[in-house]
Design goal:
This protein has 155 residues and is mainly beta. The chain is 12% helix and 55% strand. The protein has one domain (22-154): Calycin beta-barrel core domain (Lipocalin). It has 1 helix and 10 strands; from the N terminus they run H-E-E-E-E-E-E-E-E-E-E. It is globular and about 40 Å long. The N and C termini lie far apart (51 Å).
Length: 155
């Protein structure tokens, strides 16, 4: 009987913890006045569409670079297992996810080998601030380091 009660309490605790995980689902538009973007050039998508259901999170980023519109679509699992998506110029991007200890942010770490053979590491931290989605993106490669804080409003 004690084992049964202990199993029930453990199961209930896991259910409560998973219920408290943030869900970033929605159609999000960039608010440039609230964001901290690079002055010379920014990699901030104008729009992000996120569908998060269970252990899966699909992220669709709509951007414009030098007058060309493009979309990047990534599929992640939220259990920390490696996910492989298409990166820049058809490179292979390997990503893992991890929830912060307080479960208030999701950290996605991606690595991709550039066409010149060098590796780039991209760390994206998703969180919420009020009703806004905050995305902190850090990229590091042999070309240097870049960091931006993007604030998105739900549509």
């Amino acid at each position: 009987m004690k084992k049964l009660i202990l199993l029930f309490v453990a199961s209930l605790s896991l259910t409560l913890v998973s219920a408290q995980t943030l869900n970033f689902s929605g159609n999000w538009k960039l608010n440039t006045s609230l964001s901290k973007l690079n002055a010379e050039f920014s990699f901030a998508p104008a729009e992000i569409i996120i569908v998060q259901k269970g252990n899966d999170m699909n992220v669709e980023k709509h951007s414009n670079w030098q007058g060309e519109d493009f979309t990047i679509t990534d599929k992640f699992t939220l259990d920390g297992k490696e996910c492989i998506n298409t990166g820049f110029q058809d490179t292979q991007k390997k990503s893992t996810t991890a929830w912060s200890e307080d479960k208030k942010s999701l950290i996605i770490t991606s690595k991709l080998v550039m066409n010149d053979g060098n590796e780039m590491t991209i760390t994206e931290t998703y969180s919420t601030e009020g009703k806004n989605l905050v995305l902190i993106s850090k990229a590091s490669s042999s070309y240097g380091d870049v960091e931006e804080t993007m604030v998105y409003e739900k549509q």
